[in-house]
Amino acid sequence: MPESKSPAKEHFLAWDKEYAHLKWGGPAPIRNVLARIPAGARVLDAGSGGGRYLGELAGHYAAAGVDVSLTALGKSRGQLARSGKTAEHLGASVHLLPFKKASFDGILCYGVLQHLFREEREAAVREFRRVLGNGGLVFFEAFGTEDMRCGGEPAKRGEGNSEENTFLRQNGIIYHYFTKEELVSLFEEFEVLELEDVKKEKVFRGDVYRRHMIRGIFRRI
User: Fold this and answer.
1) How many other CB atoms are found less than 10 A from the CB of residue 8?
2) All residues at 6 or more sequence positions from 78 whose CB lies less than 8 Å from its CB, including other chains
3) Could you tell me which residues are beta bridge partners of residue 195?
4) Residues lower than pLDDT 50 in the chain
5) 31: left (phi over 0), alpha (psi -120 to 50) or beta
6) SS3 at position 202
7) Which class in CATH covers the domain with range 7-21+28-220?
8) What are 4-32's pLDDT values in tens digits?
9) Could you report how far apart the first and last alpha carbons of the chain are, in Å?
């Protein structure tokens, strides 16, 4: 009888299935990074996926990307190769980074911590602090609690209790929705340079549908 998969890892394993059918969405902007980190610096894309940000980072920096999905990393390598760019690709979770202390000047983490449980989010931020040099920056983005998608089946950590504002989708991926106060606490050992709500609303047949993201820049101190 085959060994069963650990419930603690199911939300990681789900990403290979997700990336198996995801199509390339084109390059994504890195304006905030370019405005604050000089060219040639060392920058990590923490949760690099198919390389939408990593490819842009590789055009300006000594870039590296980590992701739990080997399928995503394979697609990223291919995309960067087609564009004539290179970056280091490593299979790893952001909460256990395979780098030495003070390896980077900046970390981009967009849409990643929202897919982790609390203890993993906390471990990831500790890892960010460890691998950043003094004054290094974290560029962050994730879902906020006012997003219309906040809700659903509560996600549980193994046999434990569910976590507030954390939900399980049918694809096996979890979604956590942040508040600004929660992020200030999560990055308590960093200096908060920017932290803003980004809200977009659409009205359809009289109903209001809201998208809510929280963006931040945090400096290692």
Assistant:
1) 13
2) none
3) 216
4) 1-8
5) alpha
6) strand
7) alpha beta
8) 333 347 899 999 999 998 888 899 999 99
9) 51
Given the DSSP bridges, would you call strands 42-46 and 104-110 parallel, antiparallel or unpaired? parallel
Domain regions of the chain by residue span: 7-21+28-220
What is the tally of helices (H) and strands (E) in the chain? 6, 10
Distance CA 147, CA 210 (A): 6
- Kind and range of the H or E element at 218? strand 207-220
- Residue pair 216/181 in contact by the 8 Å Cβ criterion: no
CA dist list (Å): 91 to 66, 73, 216: 6, 7, 25
Tokens (6 digits) for 185: 């606490």
Residue 153 in 3-state DSSP? strand
Element (H, E) at 212: strand 207-220
DSSP 32-64: HHHHHS-TT-EEEEET-TTSTTHHHHHTTSEEE
Would you tell me how many other CB atoms lie within 10 Å of the CB of residue 171? 11
